[in-house]
Structure formats: C-alpha cells, structure tokens
Specification:
By secondary structure, the chain is of the alpha/beta class. It has helices spanning about 10-20, 55-65, 80-85, 85-105, 140-160, 190-200, 230-245, 260-270, 295-300, 310-320; strands at about 1-5, 25-30, 45-50, 70, 110-115, 165-170, 170-175, 205-210, 220-225, 225, 250-255, 260, 280, 290. The model has no long low-confidence stretch (mean pLDDT about 95). Bound molecules: uridine-5'-diphosphate-4-deoxy-4-fluoro-alpha-D-galactose.
Length: about 325
C-alpha cells in the first residue's frame, strides 16, 4: 500500500502512520501542523508540511509518491469549539475536505478512508443498547454535522466518479502505542482519559466529573472507549477491503462495551496505583448520556475486531506519558 495520510501528525493519524510503516507500507503525511506535532510523525514516513486546500500540492504528492489510498484525518475536532464557531468547521472540515476530494479525483488514487465520528448520531434514541450504522443521525453540533456532510459527499462521489470510500465512525478513541513512544496530545486537552492521567500524575489539581445525574447505573456518562491501535488496524482493513472492490460506506468502530466516567476513574486508579482527586460539576452541555457502538458491520465485512480493553487503553496511555512508571 502507498498511503497519503492527511493529519498524520495528529493523534490517531500518527498512530496509523506508525502501524502502516511497521507493516511495510509506504506512508506520506500531509499536515499543516495547526494542531499536530511534527515529532509524532514516524521518521520512516515522508512528511510534507502543507494544506489540504492546496490542489497543486495534493496532486503532486499523490503523483510523486504513487499514492493509491488516502486516509483523511486532517480536521478540527472540538465539539465545544464547533458550537461557538461553526463557520470554522464548515470551512476547515467541509470546504477544505471538498477541495481535497477534488484534487484526489483529478489524479489516479481511488480509495479514500475518512475519519468520521459517533458525533454524527447526536443523542441516540433512548433504550438502544448499541448503535448500528443505520441509527438516526441527528448531529448536535457543527463538528458532527461536518463529518456527516462529508460522508454524504463521498457517497455521491462514489456513485458518480467511482471513488471507493469508507467513513470510519470512531466512538471514544483513547490509549497510545504499546511501546510508549506515541501518545494522545491535544492543546487544550478535553478528553477524559488523558485528563484523568494528568490528574494522576499531579499535573492537574483535579479531574472534574461532568454530571452524576444521568440515567445510567452510576449516574455518570457511558462511552465506548476504543484503543487507538485497534483503530489503526481498522483503517488498514478498510483500505484493503476497498482496494479489493468490496462495498464501502460507513462503519462504526467501537468495542460494543460501555464504560462510565466513574468506571474510567476506577480503572485509572487501579492502573496507576494513585487516588484521583475528583470534583463534581454540572453536566457538560451537549453530552449524550450513553454512546456505545455496534461494530458488527466492521467485524462482518472488514474482519475487524478490537483486541484491547479499557485496562489496556489506560495502561498504554499511562506508559506513554510516564515511561518509567510501569
Ligand atoms: N468528562 C468528564 N470530565 C472531563 C472530560 C470528560 O467528566 O474532564 C466526561 C464527559 O462528560 C463524557 C466522557 O467523560 O461523558 C467522555 O468525554 P470526552 O471529552 O473524552 O469524549 P466525548 O465522548 O465527549 O467525545 C468523543 C470524541 C469526540 C466526538 C464525541 C462524539 O472525542 O470527537 O465523542 O460524541 F465528537
């Protein structure tokens, strides 16, 4: 495989790049470093600093590197920011990605794997244990909407231009590479697992729990945490599936197992051996109470199954943060 990874200096993209080069694939990263980190890009990959909106650059990279599959991660990803500044999400996610797709279509590569999100579902229908891909999609914010618009564009482009595409709807990506050399880095950090580890490491005074009055077994929100290296294997499986001419579309990526915020805290305390300072606060606006994936389609069609549980997620994320701690 000869892969172009947009956003390959970001969290999930950099883990995919590592996996690709470990598997012997050729990877070229296109990233403008607006939120990514150049030092997260594996040295065996080629790194091009630039904008996905630059059609001449995209075309020249695809041609020079003889790219046959594009993994498109480059995006804004903050739900709260997308509520305050939706225009940024329409510009940087929708418009920029459409420009990227135009540039791809003018060249030879025909396989595109899009980073999508559980945020396309919004607040799921109550009582649904695990969401399948056909669950109603009612995004609550411009972030989720932006990914849904791009999925729709890819579906139409697939029919009209022969683009072979998959949209991988991640539930809660977490964890880090097992060897401790790559990790989740966002500035500012808003995600539960890295924040809990920062609190465990004493880099934060406390972890704030947003709401204990949800209709869940312990009152805290339930999410489906999926290991970032399991996501990496899903991308490769999806690209191979598309390259073999098999049907694409949307695939949920999760474990099918929900963990509450309180359970994540307990897991972090167990793995790190430290008591977490916790304070309670009101619900965070826009949080669904339960989001758990049914990833049956990915298992059936891509042959993908996550192999790492919440303990592995927390252990690997902790090791990557504090290499000598384990
Ligand atoms: N949480 C806390 N305290 C914190 C941070 C998070 O209690 O300091 C809680 C949240 O309320 C939520 C859970 O921990 O219940 C997980 O929150 P994250 O911010 O880690 O993740 P989200 O579920 O909000 O977001 C994830 C992805 C988004 C995606 C969204 C889909 O990170 O990209 O799922 O709903 F849009």
């Amino acid at each position: 495989m000869r892969a172009l990874v947009t956003g390959g200096a970001g969290y999930i993209g950099s883990h995919l790049v590592r996996h690709l080069v470990d598997e012997g694939a050729h990877a070229v990263v296109l990233d403008d470093l607006s939120t990514g980190f150049a030092d997260a890009v594996d040295r065996r990959a080629r790194f091009v600093e630039g904008d996905i909106r630059d059609p001449a650059l995209v075309r020249s990279v695809i041609e020079a590197e003889r790219v046959d599959a594009v993994f498109h991660f480059a995006a804004r990803i903050r739900v709260d920011e997308s509520v305050k500044d939706p225009a940024k999400y329409y510009r940087d996610n929708v418009a920029a990605s459409l420009a990227l797709f135009d540039a791809i279509l003018s060249g030879p590569a025909r396989v595109v794997v899009l980073s999508s999100t559980a945020a396309v579902y919004g607040d799921p229908d109550p009582g649904v244990a695990a969401l399948g891909e056909d669950h109603p999609k009612r995004p609550l914010n411009a972030y989720g909407e932006s990914k849904l618009v791009l999925e729709g564009a890819l579906a139409r482009y697939g029919q009209a231009y022969g683009l072979r595409w998959a949209a991988l709807r991640y539930f809660n990506a977490a964890g880090a590479h097992e060897d401790g050399s790559l990790r989740e880095r966002h500035e500012p950090e808003t995600h539960l697992v890295p924040i809990a580890l920062e609190a465990a490491a004493g880099e934060r005074t406390a972890l704030t729990v947003f709401g204990r009055d949800y209709p869940t077994s312990d009152g805290t929100c339930v999410r489906d945490y999926v290991h970032v290296m399991d996501l990496a294997t899903a991308h490769v499986a999806a690209a191979r599936h598309l390259a073999a001419g098999r049907p694409g579309g949307a695939f949920n990526l999760g474990t099918g197992r929900g963990s509450s915020v309180a359970e994540v805290i307990a897991c972090v305390e167990r793995v790190t051996g430290r008591a977490l300072p916790v304070v309670d606060a009101a619900r965070r606006p826009g949080d669904a109470s339960v989001l758990v994936a049914s990833a049956e389609r990915a298992e059936r069609e891509l042959g993908w199954r996550p192999t790492r549980d919440l303990d592995a997620i927390v252990r690997d994320a902790w090791r990557a943060r504090r290499p000598r701690a384990l």
